[in-house]
Write a structure and sequence with these properties.
The protein is built from 11 helices and 7 strands. The protein is α+β, with helices and mostly antiparallel strands and about 325 residues long. The strands form 2 sheets. Strands 4-3-7-5-6 form a 5-stranded mixed sheet, with helices on both faces. Strands 1-2 form a two-stranded antiparallel ribbon.
C-alpha cells in the first residue's frame, strides 16, 4: 500500500506540473528514455515530496513505461480492433493480481468474466466485474456497457470457501428478489411516504418511486454488509443501488440525500478494498456528495440551522 501511495503522489505531481514522460526531454523516439533527465526529475521530486530518491526514480521509470505501453495499446487497437483491458483481481486473503487482456469490445460480459476465472481457476458464479462504477452484466456486450480500449476493470471474487458457495449464490438471487419485492410494495401508496429533509411530502411518478424504493432497499442491505466489514458484498449492493438511483430525475435526487450518502459509501468501499485504480471515480463521487449536501442543507448548513435552530458547533 505504501508503494501505491508513492505512485499516486508522483503521478499527481506530474499531472500538476504538466510533465509528460513520453515526450522530450524525458523520452526520444529514436534513442528511448532519457535517463539523465529522469534522474534529475527524481532528485527534484524526492526533495519536494520528501520521498526516497530510489523510489522516486523507479516510480518515474514505471510511469513512463506504463504511458508508452498505453500509447502502444492505442496504436494496436487502431490496427486490429482489439481493446486492451487491465483487470485488477481482488480475492480475500490473497494479494491482488493485475492481468491484461486483449479482447473484442463485442465480447459479452460473461466471456470476459470467463477469461478472468481462467487466471485464478474458479467458477464464473463467484466473480463480479466492475468498470466505471457499474457492474458488468453477463448478457450484454462490453462496448454497450462502456468498456473501451485501455479501460480498467475491477474483478471482485466472492468468498472462496466451498461451504459458502450457496450463500454467495443466494446473495445474487437476493438482489433480484429485493428488486421484485420492493417494486410491488412501491405500488402501494400507503407503504411509504417519501419526504424531503424538511419533512415535506415529495410527489413523484410511480416509475421513479419504484426505482427510488428499490435503490434505498439495496443501499440498506449494502450498509448491513458494510457494518460486517464485508466490503466486496457491500460494494455490489451499493452499485446496484446506484443503477436504480440513476433512473430517478436529478430534481428528485436534489430533494433527498440518499444518493449523496450512497456515493460516500461507494468511495469508502473502494478505499477499504485498496482499489487505487478507482481513486478518480471515488473523487468524483465525493464531489457529487458534497454538492448534493450543499443543495440539500445550504453552503454553510443554513437550511439545517433554520430547521434545528443551531449548527451544533
Amino acid at each position: 500500500m505504501e508503494t501505491e501511495d508513492i505512485f499516486i503522489q508522483i503521478r499527481d505531481k506530474l499531472h500538476k506540473d504538466n510533465i509528460k514522460l513520453w515526450l522530450p526531454p524525458y523520452y526520444d523516439s529514436s534513442v528511448g528514455s532519457e535517463v539523465e533527465e529522469i534522474k534529475q526529475l527524481a532528485i527534484s521530486y524526492s526533495t519536494s515530496l520528501n520521498l526516497c530518491y530510489e523510489l522516486c526514480y523507479s516510480t518515474l521509470e514505471t510511469l513512463q513505461s506504463n504511458a508508452l505501453e498505453k500509447l502502444s495499446q492505442i496504436k494496436r487497437f487502431k490496427e486490429n480492433g482489439l481493446a486492451t483491458v487491465k483487470i485488477k483481481i481482488l480475492q480475500q486473503n490473497t494479494n491482488s493480481k493485475v492481468v491484461t487482456k486483449e479482447v473484442s469490445l463485442n465480447m459479452l460480459g460473461c466471456d470476459l468474466k470467463a477469461l478472468v476465472c481462467e487466471e485464478i481457476n474458479i467458477s464464473t458464479e463467484r466473480v463480479k466485474l466492475i468498470t466505471s462504477g457499474f457492474i458488468v452484466r453477463d448478457e450484454n456486450s462490453l462496448k454497450s456497457q462502456g468498456v473501451k480500449n485501455t479501460s480498467q476493470v475491477l474483478a471482485l471474487v466472492l468468498n472462496e470457501s466451498v461451504t459458502n458457495l450457496n450463500e454467495d449464490e443466494s446473495r445474487i438471487r437476493e438482489i433480484e428478489s429485493t428488486k421484485a419485492d420492493t417494486s410491488l410494495l412501491a405500488l402501494d401508496d400507503g407503504y411509504m411516504q417519501l419526504e424531503d429533509q424538511c419533512g415535506n411530502a415529495v410527489n413523484i411518478p410511480i416509475k421513479e418511486k419504484k426505482a427510488l424504493m428499490v435503490a434505498m432497499a439495496l443501499h440498506e442491505k449494502g450498509r448491513v454488509a458494510l457494518k460486517e466489514h464485508n466490503y466486496t458484498k457491500a460494494l455490489i449492493f451499493f452499485l446496484d443501488a446506484d443503477k436504480e438511483f440513476s433512473q430517478c430525475n436529478s430534481q428528485l435526487l436534489n430533494n433527498v440525500d440518499n444518493c449523496a450518502l450512497l456515493n460516500l459509501d461507494i468511495a469508502w468501499c473502494y478505499l477499504c478494498l485498496q482499489s487505487f485504480m478507482h481513486l478518480p471515480e471515488a473523487h468524483e463521487r465525493l464531489k457529487k456528495c458534497e454538492e448534493n449536501f450543499h443543495k440539500s442543507y445550504g453552503q454553510n448548513f443554513e437550511r439545517l440551522i433554520a430547521l434545528k435552530g443551531t449548527s451544533g458547533t
